[in-house]
Design a protein that fits this description.
The chain is mostly helical and about 60 residues long. The chain is built from 3 helices and no strands. The protein has a domain of about 35 residues. The protein is globular, with a radius of gyration of 12 Å. The two termini are about 25 Å apart.
Amino acid sequence: MSLRRTHDEDIALTMLERHRIAVMWELHLIAAKAYREGSKASAAAIIEIADAAERGWMRGNGRA
């Protein structure tokens, strides 16, 4: 695994620090809405950020 963080991870960890664990659920809801509205690429990008937030939380970076 790379020691360098991706842009998605930077965004996710910032959001996780500000909004705590709820941000993971909120991002999934936002992604679902984007997908339903036909924005499949946006939905996929939001899911990537949600997944990065979850990985950060699992590592303890979110301190949630």
